[in-house]
Amino acid sequence: MKRKLFVLSLVLIYTLIVLTACSGPKDLTAGKTAEKIVEESFDKWYQLNNYDMDMTSKMKMSLGQDVMDISMSGKATIFQKPMKMKMVMDLTMPNMDEKMTIEQYMVEENQKVIVYQQVGDQWQKVTVDDPAMAKMMAMDPRDNLKLFMDNLTKAEFLGEEKIGEMNTVKIDIIASSKIFEQVFQETAGNTLGIDNGLINKDILSKIGDMEYLIWINKATLETVKCQMVLTENMKNLGNALVEDGNLPDINELKEVFANMEISMEYTVLNQNKAQDFTIPEEAKNAEEIPLPNP
Predict the structure, then answer these.
(1) How many whole angstroms separate alpha carbon 152 and alpha carbon 125?
(2) 276-281 long-range contacts, Cβ below 8 Å, gap at least 24?
(3) Does the pLDDT value for residue 52 go beyond 70?
(4) Which terminus of the chain has fewer CB atoms gathered within 10 Å of its CB, N or C?
(5) Mean pLDDT for the chain?
(6) pTM of the prediction?
(7) What is the pLDDT of residue 249?
């Protein structure tokens, strides 16, 4: 009798192991449209307290016979409530013997956005004292999500891919450039605190729709990776700046933007597990660089 109970127990344990192994990870994307998956994934992202990012970007510019290839790679840590960010990037340019490292911090304090940046051994500090900018950066995650989804014009499955140990769905999305008009309208600002006549809603509304490739974890709906090719957007931006006519050397500027190629990629890591950081004292004590007036 004891032997039968022992055998039965082994069979039950074996069956449990087999069922568990065969059940596999859950798939939270099953039966959902690409748009719905994007909405749920971005909702989860917007409500994170913190996360890390690995980032790379490539930019190619040409003016006459001169061609310049610029590449950047680095890491960022973002805390969203309240907003503060640390970013360390390595910049590689032609005719440079070694990489240039840029360390940057951004914090929101008393309805001001303060940026600390170190290039080489020199720290600089810039304060954006504009309620509209602070309001935009403090937007409720639900409002951010609604703003994005209201301007989402396309969400299309491109297949599935394995990234590390994660099974992901790859989705092509396009967001209308009208999103910039709404950002400015809802924050009651026109220049996001950069009052030099260069960046305003009329300029940004002309850069064209933004296209992304995103990879979403099927088991958790976490956004894993994003790629963007901004070449056409930069051409549109150049044309808009030329039409605006507020900058010197307009013809040279138009040529630079017309021949510019730019792409970027980032991977989202350590969601709600990012390590906190403090701003170095030498950064806090840096000389203030005033923003240009119009």
Answers:
(1) 36
(2) 276/50, 276/79, 277/77, 277/86, 279/105, 279/107, 279/116, 280/123
(3) yes
(4) N
(5) 79
(6) 0.79
(7) 61
Mean pLDDT in residue range 82-108: 85
